[in-house]
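User: Please fill in residues for this 278-position structure.
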């Protein structure tokens, strides 16, 4: 039963998958449906195909979830869809700096995270030597341990990492000048002399993002891992033992399912409490 005493909540899902079949959008929808039911909210959401159809919402939404997507986060520079996307971000920033008491909250995932890091010049973006794919540990920084987004998550916690590109080498001056905080970094790899990627950033009081996929769940990941082409890809890249370990991790409720049940809901808690108070 929906509690009509609470204000309606409007969420925009920004789809950056460019028409590619994916599990991310389903993950967002499932989290929102579950959250709506648990909290008895008048919550609605609308999907915008940003890359394929150049669809971008206006400022009439309260919360924006911006997805991952395929390809290079550098090649879209100057494209029509990216201009519209960044124009929306600018409008949201301007709104949040205004006297309006109802702020706009945005969560950026993977490809969106990389785009916004490029926009803010927060680090170096390059293609990985090999793609990262799997259920991998993510380590919190001291700032991450105090951030609402990571409340009730272990350190490290486990999440789906699926990317060929990465943001590395934090521009510390830019972080300081813009008041941003690095919340999480990639797992330690003592045998590999390469920088650890930035995995989560608090861009502002209202904007936060991750280079991993907090919307992913065991159902979607199992579907990907059982796909014959993806199975061969993972085994060729990481070995059969690693592939088997990934499947076993799906059954551990403290790993992937816990992250999906926790991180974006934490973000929604923060956003919706702010809306209700205003």
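Assistant: Residues filled in for all 278 positions:
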């Amino acid at each position: 039963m929906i509690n009509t005493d609470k204000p309606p909540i409007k969420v925009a899902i920004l789809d950056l998958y460019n028409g590619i079949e994916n599990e991310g959008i389903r993950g967002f929808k499932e989290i929102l449906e579950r959250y709506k039911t648990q909290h008895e909210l008048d919550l609605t959401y609308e999907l915008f195909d940003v890359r394929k159809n150049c669809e971008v919402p206006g400022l009439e939404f309260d919360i924006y979830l911006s997805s991952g997507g395929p390809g290079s986060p550098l090649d879209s520079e100057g494209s029509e869809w990216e201009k519209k996307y960044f124009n929306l971000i600018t409008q949201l920033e301007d709104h949040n700096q205004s006297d309006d008491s109802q702020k706009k909250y945005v969560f950026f995932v993977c490809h969106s995270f990389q785009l916004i890091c490029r926009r803010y010049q927060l680090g170096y973006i390059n293609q990985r030597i090999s793609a990262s794919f799997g259920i991998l540990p993510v380590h919190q920084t001291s700032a991450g341990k105090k951030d609402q987004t990571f409340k009730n998550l272990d350190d490290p916690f486990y999440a789906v990492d699926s990317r060929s590109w990465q943001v590395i080498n934090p521009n510390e001056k830019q972080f300081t000048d813009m008041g941003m905080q690095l919340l999480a970094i990639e797992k330690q790899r003592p045998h590999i002399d390469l920088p650890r990627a930035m995995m989560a950033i608090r861009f502002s009081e209202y904007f936060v993002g991750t280079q991993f996929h907090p919307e992913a769940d065991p159902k979607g990941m199992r579907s990907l891992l059982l796909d014959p082409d993806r199975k061969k890809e993972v085994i060729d890249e990481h070995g059969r033992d690693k592939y088997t370990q990934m499947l076993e991790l799906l059954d551990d409720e403290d790993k992937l399912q816990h992250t999906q049940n926790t991180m974006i809901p934490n973000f929604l808690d923060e956003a919706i409490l702010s809306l209700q108070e205003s």
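For context: DSSP finds ten helices and nine strands in the chain.
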